[in-house]
Amino acid sequence: MDRGGGDMSDIFAFNGSEDAGYAQPAPIADADAAIARIPTSLRRAERAAWPTASEPELVRHYTWLSQRNFGIDTGFYPLGSCTMKHNPRVNERIVQLAGMNDIHPLAPAHHLQGLMAIYYEMQEMLGHCAGMDEVTLQPVAGAQGEFTAIRCIQEYHRSIGQSHRDKVIVPDSAHGTNPASAAMCGYSIIEIPSGEDGRLDLDALRAVVGDDTAAMMITNPSTLGVFEPDIAEAAQIVHDSGGQMYYDGANFNAIIGRTNPGLMGFDAVHYNLHKTFSQPHGGGGPGSGPIGVKTHLAEFLPSPIVGRRPSEEGEIGAGDGWWYTWEQPENSIGKVHQWHGNAGAVVRSWAFYRRYGRDLTTMSEHAVLNANYLRHQIMNPSPEVREKIHAMPLDGCPADVVKHEFTLSMSPLVDAIGVNGKDVAKRLLDYGYMSPTLYFPMIVPECLMIEPTETESKEALDQFAIDFHSVISEDPEILTTAPHTTDVKRVDEVWAARNLILRHPKE
Q1: What whole-number percentage of the chain has pLDDT above 70?
Q2: What is the Cα–Cα distance from 319 to 457, expressed in whole angstroms?
């Protein structure tokens, strides 16, 4: 560790002087008595190897780490199936207000009226924009929302004496968590192929629906970035068989304000607050995956849900004339999270929704506009530029208009010069961009999924298209050995995933 602020990577190698680091206050209870309660097998045999760095040294270390990361505040972030990248700073100011960030989960309802008012409003707003009747904010991730919604569908079928329904249908373009979530509920998965145009194949759907169909799980727009024009007919086919329709809300930002899952015929939906409603995700913070359902599924939602009644005399409430209460649906599947969901994510997203309201439609329009503009710029280079390009990519899915994202196949580059999608993605890092999503969906060979989102300027999109053309015009050796400018070069991802290093090695 360089104390001067250079290489600060090995903070555990810096021991400083004894007890130079932050000191914890002495325990109130007798330390020996407290330790005695810990089973001998769980006690440390030696002192933990914590660094003994001072506060400024620790700050320098983590600042140094932050400067090595690429994020949305660093540059263009075209990662597909990720949606919203920008997180307005005003949301952070609101969530850090006293009374928001210091609430204990066991606090009684009369101490939480303000937060519960926010929860109630968020339930109502999410239900409205998706065409659902009831919402729970419990799930804390999109995949957990999937699992929760499928469990509600499962309990619904049991309640009407149709427990024999044990099949869940997914298209081959589905996100991998869809079949995984259904399998966790004990369902068998039936995958149906997409049509030649990449969209739902209704004949393939009709061939597999039946008395054993529990549900169909689908994203619309799909992971290919295109809207399913036959979605209402698909819903009718599933409903006629007695099944339910589940909507994966990962791409919800492409349609908000223009249509909704309820109008398409869906019975349940999960929202990604970290994809559509500005909650930071990934390294920026945890996610949140609320679910909304139609009335017939509402009694099975996990608790708690916030309800309200008019305030009575002496009740202060939230100051809006209502008294808010924690409620449990009649036949709830129980909790899927220890407390009340990810409160910070909910408050941030509520602030975003409150701030923009009906203008969220404009957000959606801009996301679609940017995706179509960038796709056009990439696929239509000038004759002079095209002459230098080794091979033009192919559209991952034929469409006059895409939604919030689009896919490109790098297969022509493989055939022309032996350069694949991974090589292109790695080389884009050298140009200062985050890589697009690579090799997903898998039905597109050598796939790059690109999503500019609603917040990027025309100038940023133009520059990315220019740089993309430069990449696919370069010497193959440059691409196959990229990246060249990053601290970490090309790694063996398979080896790294199978050989995790989760502990700092001792000297």
Answers
A1: 94
A2: 41
